[in-house]
Amino acid sequence: MGVIKGKTDNFGFPLWEIQLEGGKLVTEARYRFDIISEPDRTVTHPLEHDSPPHVPDELLYLFEPELNEVDKTPNEAPVNVSAPPQAPTQKPSSKASKPRQFVPVDESTVEQFVKDQENQGTARKNISDMRTLTQFLQQKNEKREIYKIPPEELNSLLCQYFFSVRKTDGEEYEPSSLRGMMCSFDRILRSNDYGYELSKSVEFAKTRDVLTAKQIALKKMGKGNGDKRAETLTDDDIEAMFKTGQLGLSNPTTLLHTLWFFNTIYFGLRGVTEHYQMTWGDVQLCKDSKSQEYLQMNERNTKTRTGANLKNTREIPQRAWATTDQTKCPVAAYKLYKSKRPTKYSKPEDPFYIQENNNPDKSALWFKAQRIGINKLGKFMKKMALNTGNKIL
User: Fold this and answer.
1) Are 208 and 179 contacting, i.e. CB atoms less than 8 angstroms apart?
2) What is the C-alpha to C-alpha distance for residues 4 and 41, in angstroms, rounded to an integer?
3) Taking the C-alpha atoms of 316, 318, 324 and 327 in order, what is their torsion angle to the nearest 10 degrees?
4) Rounded Cα gap, residues 64 and 200, in angstroms
5) Nearest alpha carbon to residue 55 among 32, 80, 72, 37
6) What phi, psi does 4 have (nearest 5°)?
7) What span, in angstroms and rounded, lies between the C-alpha atoms of 330 and 322?
8) Where is this region: Disordered (predicted)?
9) How many other C-beta atoms lie within 10 A of the C-beta of residue 317?
10) Which of 135, 183, 264, 371 is the most exposed place for a label (fewest CB within 10 A)?
11) Segments making up each domain of the chain, as ranges
12) How far are the Cα atoms of 147, 254, 256, 341, 371 from residue 359, in angstroms, in the given order?
């Protein structure tokens, strides 16, 4: 309850001076109290009045201190103040998001994970090249790890290394081999947070100059012409392997060679590691709308498609269609292999290539539940070529 004592204007809006029952004067821009205009007049019901004009929010803060002070005045008679409407309480969503799941991990686990995904060929090359460099450093009475040698000293040592390094038989390396050594050393330094790069840092500019000069000199000597590349198989070479029994369906060894050959030709498997990592579930026997059978490869990481580049994928699945010539049919070879290998060792996660049975004539199964080693797989082509009597490698 209050009494209007005066009125002023502020930016076009009326301000009301109101004396509360306790005697305190307040200034209000809106009616928030039951008021009377004359001191001697008593009212028993609230005074009805028109709604005041809307006051912008940026002006309301000017009056908040006085209003807060009114609420905190001690020993003052209760004031009939209408509370501003409260916003409706928002009900919690019935579709509450589930908490994320995270596997416990530490730094050593992360480092081991990265190491496990590294290309095994690259890892072996790192070890081989570092072994050669370590032999050189020992001759220089240098026992520190390369990532513990200051850049200026390491630069000088590498210059000498690339100038003098030879094979065990005294022959010069190929230019690409020297460049590969540089990459191996760079990977070792980077993995140990060395802080400098052999291929970019100015501290190793002389090392790069020596390597370039060495490559030019080797090129003048006839090195680097790729004369050790394998020869391409011709149709006559392939026909010769079928005629001599190196390819076909007649026995366990020949069948394995044939499957390896078809997987290479139709599915584009290049390195021995890709064959070795194949599982039985990677190849599926399918039919098209005309009931024509074909094999489809579920490609994982390969030599050229490792998975690091998500865009580097095949748009069309790899397929090997059935042919009328059963001796050269990939589907026929797959079906025979399926029937001749142990059922208990034909789960999707089991190895694709398994060992031949020592006594296939005494068993319906030609193969046993044992994986073929990577070295044996790597010699399939060489073995077939030698037995054919044609130097196609």
Assistant:
1) no
2) 12
3) 170
4) 65
5) 32
6) -70, 125
7) 6
8) 72-103
9) 13
10) 135
11) 2-72, 118-220, 235-305+314-388
12) 55, 15, 16, 14, 17
At 84-125, the pLDDT tens digits run 556 566 665 656 677 877 888 887 787 777 767 666 778 889
Helix 151-164 and helix 205-220, axial crossing angle in degrees, nearest 10: 10
Q: Tally the residues of the chain.
A: 393
Tell whether the model's pLDDT for residue 2 goes beyond 80: no
- For residue 180, the one-letter residue type is G
Helix (H) or strand (E) holding 289: none
The rounded radius of gyration (Å) of the Cα atoms in the chain is 43
Q: Are strands 2-10 and 367-371 parallel, antiparallel or unpaired?
A: unpaired
What pLDDT score does 92 carry?
59
Count Cα atoms within 13 angstroms, Cβ side, for 311: 0
Cβ-contact 70, 24 below 8 angstroms: yes
Closest CA to 177 of 220, 217, 131, 125: 125
Q: Which CATH class is domain 235-305+314-388?
A: alpha beta
351 is written with which tokens? 């190895």
- Lowest mean pLDDT segment, chosen from 48-52, 262-266, 268-272: 48-52
Q: Count the alpha carbons within 13 Å of 213 in the hemisphere toward its beta carbon.
A: 11
Q: Is 249 left (phi over 0), alpha (psi -120 to 50) or beta?
A: alpha
Residue 30 zone, left/alpha/beta (φ > 0; ψ -120 to 50; rest): beta
Instruction: Please determine, for residue 153, whether its predicted confidence score (pLDDT) is greater than 60.
Output: yes
Residue type, 110: V
The reported pTM is: 0.50
pLDDT at 393 over 80: no
